[in-house]
What does this fold into?
Amino acid sequence: MDICFSRGFLQISTVQENADGEVGLGEAVAQVSDRPQRKVLGLGLDMGGIIMIAIGLTLDSPNLIAGLAGGFAFAVLVYLAGSVALNRVVPAA
It folds into this structure.
């Protein structure tokens, strides 16, 4: 899922760089053809994977269940927070 976030991030950056003037985040996301929720899901999965490894390896003994639970919860939290933020930033079509 890293591809979803990275590709979307690069598309938004390209839109902002190729614009003549200032382009806000909401306008740049609206100009990208892909769905913004997919990008937020990719970001959540990336960050959830990092949290999963951190939790799993920082305990006294490596714990797969604690790592998976923490990583999944964090991924869902990032997805929900990002979706709410996108609804406020991206103009309605």
User: Anything to note?
Assistant: The CA atoms of residues 14 and 85 lie 21 Å apart. The chain has one domain: 2-89. The two ends are 26 Å apart (CA to CA). Residues 2-89 form one domain.
